[in-house]
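Technical annex, item 7. During the second reporting period the consortium partners agreed on a shared format for inverse folding records so that results from different sites could be compared directly. Each record opens with the tokenized structure and is followed by the designed sequence. A conforming record, contributed by the partner at site C, is shown below for reference.
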């Protein structure tokens, strides 16, 4: 933990992930080394998961390893997709526009049907109803459609968020797993405090 704190305070290590194109070579060395250490710990924990499924242990039918590995990949993918969806909603009003188009089809059709009934099925109103329905179906923008917010956002993942997720996978009763758990929780804590 102390070593991570010292590394984080080096002048060339005070970088942000979105600026990776401008990193000095020393930062790349630290980053690649950290990735290799994380992958080594991940491989060891998968190995522990396989050992955990030996006969006589809980999950000996192989379900534990399947859940363990799937969650290791699925949880980050779900979080990234949710973050991307939130960014699109903020910048483009993606969900709001889709919902507006979906609900406006029914509202406009209901309004046009009511007008057609009040005018006893006038041919002109029937054409107007079909025209409005076609505009909505073709995705043509109307004046009531939600507009994007004035400020644009982007996703910025912090190291403490990454290590918080990794901490869930260091739960074995093994000295290396306990050390890995201490490291990831320490880095998580340092990131929250800094």
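Designed sequence (site C submission):
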């Amino acid at each position: 933990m102390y070593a991570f704190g010292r590394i984080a305070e080096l002048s060339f290590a005070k970088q942000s992930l979105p600026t990776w194109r401008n990193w000095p070579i020393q930062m790349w060395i630290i980053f690649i080394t950290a990735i290799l250490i994380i992958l080594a710990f991940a491989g060891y924990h998968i190995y522990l998961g396989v050992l955990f499924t030996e006969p006589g242990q809980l999950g000996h039918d192989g379900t534990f390893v399947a859940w363990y590995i799937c969650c290791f990949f699925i949880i980050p993918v779900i979080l990234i997709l949710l973050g991307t969806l939130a960014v699109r909603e903020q910048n483009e009003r993606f969900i709001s526009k889709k919902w507006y188009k979906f609900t406006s089809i029914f509202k406009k059709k209901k309004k046009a049907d009511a007008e057609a009934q009040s005018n006893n099925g006038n041919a002109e109103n029937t054409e107007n109803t079909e025209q409005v329905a076609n505009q909505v179906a073709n995705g043509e923008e109307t004046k009531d459609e939600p507009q994007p917010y004035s400020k644009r956002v982007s996703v910025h993942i912090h190291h403490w968020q990454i290590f918080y997720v990794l901490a869930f996978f260091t739960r074995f009763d093994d000295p290396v797993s306990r050390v890995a758990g201490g490291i990831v929780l320490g880095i998580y804590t340092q990131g929250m405090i800094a």
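The chain has a mean pLDDT of 78. The helical segments are 2-8, 25-52, 63-92, 94-118, 123-137, 159-167, 175-193. All partners now use this format for quarterly exchanges.
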